[in-house]
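re: ur msg from earlier - yeah i can do the 6-chloroguanine complex, just paste it... oh wait u already did. ok heres what im feeding in:
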Amino acid sequence: STSPCRYSYEEYKETADWLLAHTKQRPKIAIICGSGLGGLADLLGDKAVFPYEDIPRFPTSTVPGHAGQLVFGSLQGRDCVCMQGRFHFYEGYDIHTVTYPVRVFYLLGVETVIVTNAAGGLNGSYNVGDIMILKDHINMPGFAGQNPLCGHNDIRFGERFPCMSDAYDRDLRAVARQTAEEQGCGGFLQEGVYCMLAGPSYETIAECKLLQMLGADCVGMSTVPEVVVARHCGLRVLGLSLVTNKVVTDYDSAEKANHEEVLRTTQRRTQDLERLVSQLIANI
Ligand code: 6GU
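and the outut:
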């Protein structure tokens, strides 16, 4: 539920100051890795690794085997901080906790956030394995009162009523498109609208048809809260979805949305996505 002022400025600051005292790195880029896409953090050079439970006031993972850590390091000669393991609303974290790391990034001096996720394909012309650059989003939990900016607004982070029509940076999207072409990913690259639902249940057939009518191209259970908080404090955002499965819209279909297919596709494309993000960072 939304308690007003879930966290104070001083709490985020304490976390950020602790991190700044424990690493010499000063990243301008943060990467929030989607489920199964955390392998990117292993590519960083000159790593400083902080398990979430060691970071003052940082949320901790309650799920065993879901160990999360912040990885600072260098990718393509650029200092980055990488979230290996994110907090999902469906795990029971409140919406302010889900976005806690984003304000810490801001206080570290980060200017650009790259978010990745696994998503279901709603657009009929999308294929399993496609990579979609986020052009826009539909914040369905926000419609239902779960916007991470609900509650007291601390002006040190941003304004009360932030604009979201430019949430996904046009220049970063152009760099992503160009890098994808160079990497040979152009044949399975899309650009579209991501719709977040709270999950954890997958969509019914009627819900999938509804989301298609609303103009959504992909559906998932993450990313949007982090993007809203990042834009609030003026960070530039690039979002990438991996289309891990196609949603079912036919009552006669025997297909069923399932986590195993999501994992299989993630494994198949994880290297492509890692290379894309890594090369992209060199180009921004
Ligand atoms: Cl089909 N739906 C949702 N909500 N999230 C997903 C997904 C589908 N596939 C991967 N993530």
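cool cool. DSSP finds eight helices and nine strands in the chain. ping me if u need the other ligands too
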